[in-house]
Amino acid sequence: MARRATERPHTRRDLPAWPTDGLSYGGDYNPEQWSPEVWREDVRLMREAGVNIVTLGVFSWGLLEPREGEYDWAWFDEIIALLHDAGIAVDLATPTAAPPSWLLHAHPEVLPVDAHGEREVPGGRLGWCASSPVFREHALRITTALAERYGDHPAVRLWHVSNELGGGNGRCYCDVSAARFREWLRAEYGTVEAINAAWGTAFWGHTFADIEHIEPPRGDKHKANPGMFLAFERFSSDELLEHYLAEAAVLRERSAVPVTTNFMVGSGGHVVDYSDWAGHVDVVANDHYTIVDDRVREQDLAFAADRMRGLTRAREPWLLMEHSTGAPSWQQRNRAKAPGEILRNALAHVARGSDGAMFFQWRASTAGTEQFHSAMLPHAGTESRVWREVVELGSALRRLAGIAGAPVEPAKVALLVDEESAWALQQGLKPHRALRYAHETRLWHRVFWQRQVLVDVLPVDADLDGYDLVVLPTLLVVSDAQAARVDAFVRGGGTVLATYLSGIVDETSRVRGGGYPGAFRDLLGVTTEEFRPLQADETVLLSDGGRVTDWSEDTNLHGAEAVVTYADGDSAGRAAVTRNAVGDGAAWYVSAQLPLDSATRVADRLISELGLPRAVEAGTGIEAVRRNTADGDVLFLINHSDADETVAVSGRSLLDDATFDGAALVPAGRVVVLRESAAE
Ligand code: GAL
Prior knowledge:
The chain is an alpha/beta fold. The protein has three domains: 52-278, Glycosidases (TIM Barrel, Alpha-Beta Barrel); 413-610, Rossmann fold, CATH 3.40.50; 622-676, Immunoglobulin-like (Sandwich). Helix content is 30%, strand content 19%. The strands form six sheets. The protein has a nine-stranded parallel sheet with strand order 5-4-3-2-1-9-8-7-6. The chain is globular, with a radius of gyration of 26 Å. Bound molecules: beta-D-galactopyranose (GAL). Beta-D-galactopyranose is lined by residues 163-164, 167, 287, 289, 322, 328, 330, 360, 370, 373.
């Protein structure tokens, strides 16, 4: 059986010093695009905005090492000194996201190759293969030189390994990668017989006579053997992690400064398995960009933040490393932020445990691919709404400095996410290829988010102790050990809610025998005899009045009771939502892709039956979260709606010193943060 990469011992250091006093505020700073006069203006304006840290060097390799082994530190020394004199800390990036032209010219073989055999051209980002020994050697040389020069510089408070590893080089199908993949397979499975058995290669006559005959799943990913596909996804994540670890080791040998790398958890893809990575960074950090056509983008901020907190497991602070002050430029039609949205979005992350809010980037570039990307200092300069809101956010974060390090209140609901399930769901000749893993995870987070019920978004192997409810949205890939832990949680009095396709395949992507829903069949007290994927224009009516889209199942009850049934179509009369009482616990199954109103009704029943705590009782547009400081609770109230709302709370506003006795007005689109007190 394949080893899960999570078994690798974690390397993070315990409780590193936070890079800044109070909350961190700043962004990517790319001074190489500007003259030294502009640097001085930058530093003055950073101070005006309250910036206390910037990420430096992400794209500087070619300027720091203009020719192989020849360094130019003078300009970097100067800018670091300028920042340090102004009291601004440096989050120093190893510049390996952007290989210099001399390297790509001399060694074009380091460029990644796509699944169709096409080698990437120079000029993009992360243009290197994670398995390339040539790239590794050069990357570790610049990393070593940087660490030796700045490893104990007092300005350097955080190391930022490369940038968004996997964003551009997430998969490489070159021959070097292929050879590394085979090495990885040997370590995972041992023998070719074990691989053949695990992947079921007898199908279509794909039995391998030798591990040497195995190539990465090139070509159409949907035609690949699902077991091989999943193995290659894991390998690719592991291989990028190896690169991160190699750079981190160089830094850690030479510097006591904490090490991080910026994750990419948002509405986008599933590039690497961050649950494996999080144990290797000293500070969990994320880049989050809202997507225009994401109709629930406000909730996506909360989902990503809850995931980051979940990745720290111990609920340590984490860091929002990048987001935007306005429109990015990489979407089809980029959306500017509404007035007030900069503060609202940043504080949504802070409320959920980020000890800071940082942006891409400090000053808007005038040239280069992202010349129209928003920035803290826009092209319009300081006479702009964006700048005024950037200054306002800086001042808000200073006023909130006292919450730094304070944990977010403990959650009673855990939602388990799994990159492997995402990879497996979205590959292969499946009953329904358009199902999106993110749809289901976001839906079941949203129904609690809109009721001000905090959810920890956790890796599948996380400790479930202390939770009342565990939600498994489309947890397709489940090992026996994971299934046993869920089972024990319910038998110990917990409640679990699993949605369609959960438990269907094992960790080699083989369908579990004995009927659906596989690993959870006995626990749920229900079986599915046939999947009924729905066509694009097809819906099915439910007994609660909701309409199912995309997915339904023909279920049979084996001890569970039907909570909601299919009311028309070929599954009419069968259970769509079930509940199985198990001792003091319960196991719910949702066999359909529910509309929001039906999912909300399920969540409301769970909230009331389990007494799940709501931070406040308010309308669906109010987001509410507490952080527990040594001086009492700090409550964040974020109004995402366009109507003012009054919330029944008492305390003193930390943003403007207003006091509330029994009722706080949260104006439309605004944020109130208060230190709570009892009503008089
Ligand atoms: C991020 C990246 C930044 C910048 C930004 C633009 O993914 O790390 O360097 O490109 O996107 O939105």
